[in-house]
Amino acid sequence: MKEFNSERKGLFAAFALAALFVSNFAIAQEQEIKNAVRLLNREQNTKALETITKAAQAYPDNARVLYYQGMVQAKTGDKKSAEITFQKGIEKDPKNALNIAGKGYLRMLDNNAAEAKQLFDQALTVSKSKNAEVLRAVAEGYLLSDRTTADAVANATKAKAINDTDAQTNIVLGDALMKMNPPKGGEAVSAYEKAAKLEPTDGLGFYKTGLVYFRSRNNAVAEENLVKSTTADPTFAPAYKELGELYYQTKQSSKAVTAWENYMKNIENPEKAESNYAFYLFMDKQYDKANAIFTKLLAKPEVSLTTYKYAFYAAVEAKKFDEAKSLFAKYQQKAGKDISAADWNYHGEMLQEMKQDSLAVRSFAKAYAADTSKTELLAKVGQLYFTGKKYDSAVFAYRAVIATGKKTNLSQNLYNLGRAEYVMEDYTSADSTFQKLAELQPNSTLPYLWLGRTNAQIEGEKDMKKGVAKKWFEMLIEKALITADKSKKELIEAYHYLSGYEIQVNSNMNAAEAYLDKVLAIDANDQRAKDGKKAIAEARIAQKKAAAQQQQLKNN
């Protein structure tokens, strides 16, 4: 009896050891599969392939491992090897339907939906539609076509009903729901959030949730989830990539640069991401760093049109004009007629910086021709003409800007037009222009100053008594006194005019002197006011002498 019990104990121990071995064996397989899938999701394709290949070598007869090896091969572009691997898996275990589903996945990649369906149906028949992993594999295959989204949703839903604790199943279901028309974002988010709870150290669930909110333009919640993704897994590259795009779209260029740097740190081929990195650096005004990367990109055999474009922009911003001219020539040659308004605008600004204003005018004109909604380009043309003392052309340009009816920068354009008309001595037009400016800017001193000047020219000394210029200068004083500290020059000019008016029209030296005293109260060193007071004093003396002489003549 003792021998029998001893034998039983030995058998139990052997069975327990065998069970433990099988359990550890399965756990090891599962972990290696999970590691490979995670690496693939992180855009670390080579490491994913290495990991699953080692697993397949360690467990050469395991059909499940072979399925995941085939999927990694398929998703990294090696469909030929994937076909061989799936076939090997079927031969090793015909009852394991995963590799049949894997073959269906390959047919979907080849746009052979009919044959793919036959394979998917076969996989479901073999597994009796009771294996959650097979259902998920079929759903993943159907996701490859917009026409089979309903099949993807149906199979993923069945998989989740059988096993609700598999994170990958929840991810596939979420993806299927997002492909529906219209997308079922709320349900997809629930599936992704469940995946994140099941795998808290995997960034995929949070990442997918972030994408849903980013797609719906809820940037704050999108950012929150993408950051959670990088917190859960600091090596999860796709989350950094989306954060870079989100920060770019929300004009947070510094954050975009940092996010993209983290993205590049965690992918296998950071060189492929350098063009975007250079672009983000450019947007963040880190022109030297951007130029350094553009130089590397330009040295490659194949240079994209976008690279030439932003390399040119960055060179202009860095004031490397010789380099910029060379880059624009190459860009123009490659782009042909597809040069945008922004391109010509940069070209114009470069030429303007190089003091080649006449050439800059041509570039700005081409920019406007490329996009007539950009009226500010015509305004640039007007300013260049004004600076170059081509006032008639400046007037033409500014009138063209205003004629478009665009309200953007209308006050500035009216001001510039009025000045050009004034310099051309077209005072009637200038008066009309500055009155329009006064309607737009009733509390600004600028229109009243120029209305006073313009009407002073119209009236001259002969018609000064009409008082039109006087009216505008008085209105100027009224507006300027509100901000007297900032309007000293305007006040001085107005007081001088009114002083002259009192002398010229009213012969009122007292009133004239009172205005000059106001000038000196602002600027005690104003020579014109001093000279005016001196002239008034001399005139008074002369008047007294004349009066005395007149009286003496009467007395005699």
UniProtKB/TrEMBL annotation:
Listed Pfam families: TPR_16 (PF13432), TPR_6 (PF13174)
Xref: InterPro entries: TPR-like_helical_dom_sf (IPR011990), TPR_rpt (IPR019734)
SUPFAM superfamilies named in the record: TPR-like (SSF48452)
Keyword rRNA-binding: no
Signal peptide, first to last residue: 1-28
Record's keyword annotation contains Signal: yes
Key words, A-Z: Signal, TPR repeat
PROSITE patterns reported in the protein's UniProt record: TPR
SMART domains membership: TPR
The TPR repeat ranges on this chain: 63-96, 411-444
Protein name: Tetratricopeptide repeat protein
